[in-house]
Write a structure and sequence with these properties.
This protein has 13 helices and 2 strands, in the order H-H-H-H-E-E-H-H-H-H-H-H-H-H-H. By secondary structure, the protein is mainly α. It has one domain: Orthogonal Bundle (MetI-like fold), CATH 1.10.3720.10.
């Protein structure tokens, strides 16, 4: 038998990969994506922004956080200008300290994306877990979880994040506050956004738990944890994915809002919100680019994620088209 011969009934990893790609390309979701020009453009914009921020240390023209490389005489340089003092070319101009706006946006967007994605993952994990518990167990557990959800949804998420952030900062020793600021921010934003996941998963779990396949799993002797993990959870993740996509944009905006208010990331690790807060100080003095380009980046990021979330909702549930 030849070494490269494939036995009957056996498939190679390459054929499995090709079959998987063929299934994806022939799916209704892929068809919907290809025939939605706005969604294609939003995907391209989001990929460009995410990749540019992830590889900011490699593609940023300058290091905006290296004091030794800053040229104070280049401060307030307009976009598309070359400094007569240092000879540096600034595509989007510079701020008051001579920092390249493009470089600060790339590094600041990296922080905003990390905080937003981490907070969304935390909110998904907490909300899905609490929703599964409330929907499957019912009774007292359901009543407690849902009352907490009702109370939290009665307040704006930004106020809850401010409260959690303030309480956490008061508990952490002053010497550790700056180093732990990002993690406290992730915890605060995630804790302010988990309720919508819990409510959605709870309702879906209550529906799924009364179906025949769950009853069959109980008769087969499977425990509640295994039933939730292997049977119910995969069937409730569709709505969760849609909410998570939209929540990512909301988390990035929430982080930018907190940083704009001065209670977000420390000044040594500025995000898009910090850059916008700095830029608004010079808006009426003529240096519009310091505010405009970070704000434009935040708008493009949030808008592209929201458009993808809306499309994903319609693609998963064709009845909404």
């Amino acid at each position: 038998m030849q070494g490269n011969q494939v036995l009957p009934g056996k498939t190679t990893s390459g054929s499995r990969g090709r079959s998987l790609l063929a299934k994806i390309s022939d799916s209704d979701v892929a068809y919907s994506w290809w025939h939605s020009p706005v969604v294609v453009i939003a995907t391209a914009v989001l990929l460009v922004l995410v990749l540019a921020c992830l590889f900011a240390p490699l593609i940023a023209p300058y290091d905006p956080f290296d004091p030794a490389s800053l040229q104070l005489m280049d401060g307030f340089s307009p976009p598309m200008t070359t400094s007569s003092f240092s000879g540096n070319h600034y595509l989007l101009g510079t701020d008051a300290q001579g920092r390249d706006i493009l470089s600060t946006i790339l590094h600041g967007g990296r922080v905003s994306l990390f905080v937003g994605a981490s907070a969304t993952l935390f909110a998904v994990a907490l909300g899905v877990g609490m929703g599964l518990l409330a929907g499957y167990r019912g009774g007292f557990a359901d009543a407690v979880v849902m009352r907490i959800v009702d109370v939290q949804l009665s307040f704006p998420a930004i106020l809850i994040a401010l409260l959690v952030f303030g309480v956490a900062r008061s508990v952490i020793p002053p010497s550790l506050q700056e180093s732990a600021a990002i993690w406290v921010l992730i915890f605060a934003i995630g804790l302010s956004n988990w309720a919508q996941f819990a409510r959605t998963v709870r309702g879906a779990t209550m529906v799924e738990s009364h179906k025949d396949y769950v009853a069959a799993a109980r008769i087969a002797g499977k425990g509640p944890v295994k039933i939730l993990a292997t049977h119910i959870l995969p069937n409730v993740m569709g709505p969760v994915l849609v909410i998570a996509t939209i929540s990512l944009a909301l988390a990035v905006i929430e982080e930018s809002t907190l940083s704009f208010l001065g209670v977000g990331v420390p000044p040594t690790q500025p995000s898009l919100g910090t850059l916008i807060r700095i830029g608004q100080q010079f808006l009426f003095s003529g240096e519009w680019w310091i505010l405009f380009f970070p704000a434009l980046t935040l708008v493009l990021l949030a808008l592209s994620v929201n458009l993808l979330g809306d499309w994903l909702r319609d693609a998963i549930n064709p009845r909404l088209r």
